[in-house]
Amino acid sequence: MMRKYIFTIFATLLFALSCKVSYQFNGASIDYSVTKTININDFQNQAQLVYAPLTQVFNERMKDVYTRNTKLNFTSVNPDLEIEGEVTRYDLTPLAVREDALASQTRLTMSVRMRYKNNKNPQEDKEEVFTAYRDFDSSNMLTDVQDELVKQLTEDIVDQIFNSTMSNW
Asked: So where are the chain's domains?
């Protein structure tokens, strides 16, 4: 009886130790045996309102997110995946007009057109526009809040692009 009990415990432990559960929380679903390389071209700012640091912040964030969340190697020579695009909108909109006809809130909106090319599976090629916005109190000057807002908008749009290109839901 004792021998049967020990065998059951041993078999349960062996089974438990041999199982491997793997979770990926970044949303990426890439077959690395097929897809190994990526090229992300710099996104240029083609919006009417120009904020000089915007393209650098955006391009660094794009490359950082793909570096941290995938095992893809960056190359410009025959990449398996290619991403390019441009900032098409970066503007201010007055919101919540007060009784004195002045806006109490202002919205900063940013849109990015992205083109994704999968050279291993052309059926996944796509072109999309991603938009994000943040509202801020109109008593603040844009120059006082712009760095933080651009950081937030960039994070939001880059995450949307990553999810669109790397997730196969």
From this structure: 30-166
